[in-house]
UniProtKB/TrEMBL annotation:
Domain Ketopantoate reductase C-terminal: 187-309
Annotated ranges, domain Ketopantoate reductase N-terminal: 4-152
Keywords associated with the record: NADP, Oxidoreductase
Domain of life of the source: Bacteria
Signal peptide bounds: none
This protein's record includes keyword NADP: yes
Species whose genome carries this gene: Streptomyces heilongjiangensis
Lineage, uppermost ranks: Bacteria, Bacillati, Actinomycetota, Actinomycetes, Kitasatosporales
SUPFAM superfamilies named among the record's database cross-references: 6-phosphogluconate dehydrogenase C-terminal domain-like, NAD(P)-binding Rossmann-fold domains
Protein name from the UniProt record: Ketopantoate reductase family protein
Protein family: Belongs to the ketopantoate reductase family.
Length: 351
């Protein structure tokens, strides 16, 4: 199979680079400065076992490929806010022998949140969800860092919305030959919702920096508990923290690269790169949506969603809101029940 990695950023670059290193055929799809860097200099993948540069075919869209091959796999790794545009671009592309990508090819959604596979199923017949646990960083064009060892990541994989098939097992086998663990599961959404609860801290990290203080950890616990109440009210199953820890065991240990610890997760990286967008609408916003549907207040997630969007839109520095200020805003949001109250995000920088 040939893998077309649509969105060769942190996750896409790490998966694509590892697949290529294991001998699989890979084409990278990127935009802007990342496309130019990959096209001109290749993908530099930094891992605990060394840096490697992979001079892989790189395109900025399907036109450069012409007809797709019947053995192509579309690996979608863009942020969820970019999913619709990617689906509209790649779905109609013709496939050798007849039909289109949306009709014939597997689309593997290796993304945070739970929305992308649902969007994809409106257009694509063969959609696969992935619960992505892959600590990777992309802040410099052409360079992706993946700090996990001995495995690079864990990627639970299954058909969306449920089930497994031969294609899922073939993709998983390729991933497992490429330094990943890739369990094929019939209930991949259960794992994705569990990951969603962890990703509710992405906005907190983007706003106030690493969640490594007692105050930040306590705030995250409140945000996560709010998310759990919503999922429980909605009757949505999710893997427990114990089940996740048991699955990962000691298979993935983070190792600082070049003496510099990993900076932050996907939302933090979006602010660092100044993309102007952030995925909070599909992380904290998913909890807000479900809360409104099922009558559960979500003031903390609503607050983080709004602040993260404001930071992205105004290109504010990542981690620049003091935790103490954010805690005061969170207390006010819970007291009033209005996570969107207050309008602005001004704050006084504290020492």
């Amino acid at each position: 199979m040939r893998y077309l990695v649509i969105g060769a950023g942190a996750v896409g670059g790490a998966v694509g680079g590892r697949l290529a290193q294991a001998g699989h055929e890979v084409v990278l799809v990127a935009r802007g400065a990342q496309y130019r860097a990959l096209r001109d200099h290749g993908l530099r993948l930094r891992t605990p076992d060394g840096d490697r540069t992979h001079p892989l075919p790189t395109v900025d869209g399907p036109a450069a490929l012409g007809e797709l091959r019947a053995d192509d796999v579309l690996l979608l790794a863009v942020k969820t806010q970019d999913t619709e545009a990617a689906l509209a671009t790649w779905g109609p592309v013709p496939v050798a022998g007849g039909g289109t990508a949306a009709e014939r090819l597997p689309l593997v959604c290796a993304q945070n949140g739970v929305e992308s596979a649902r969007l994809a199923l409106r257009r694509f017949r063969h959609v696969y969800g992935v619960c992505v646990w892959l600590p990777a960083t992309f802040v410099e064009p052409g360079v992706v860092s993946a700090a996990g060892t001995p495995l690079t990541g864990m990627l639970h994989l299954g058909r969306h919305p449920h089930g497994t098939d031969a294609t899922a097992h073939r993709v998983a086998a390729d991933l497992e030959r490429s330094r990943f663990e890739a369990p094929v599961v019939p209930d991949v959404q259960r794992w994705q919702y569990a990951k969603l609860l962890g990703n509710l801290g992405n906005a907190l990290e983007a706003l106030s920096g690493p969640v490594d203080s007692e105050e930040a950890a306590a705030l995250f616990a409140r945000v996560r508990a709010e998310g759990e109440r919503v999922l429980d009210a909605a009757g949505i199953a999710y893997a427990s923290a114990e089940e996740q820890r048991s699955a990962r065991g000691d298979k993935i240990t983070l190792v600082p690269l070049d003496g510099v610890p990993r900076g932050g997760g996907s939302s933090w990286q979006s602010l660092i790169r100044g993309t102007g967008t952030i995925e909070a609408d599909h992380l904290n916003g998913e909890i807000v949506l479900l809360g409104r549907l099922h009558g559960v207040p979500t003031p903390l997630n609503e607050l983080l969603q709004r602040l993260a969007n404001t930071f992205a839109r105004e290109r504010r520095p990542a981690g620049s809101m003091p935790v103490a200020h954010l805690l005061r805003r969170a207390d006010e949001a819970e007291r009033t029940g209005r996570g969107g109250a207050g309008g602005g995000v001004a704050f006084v920088q504290e020492p």
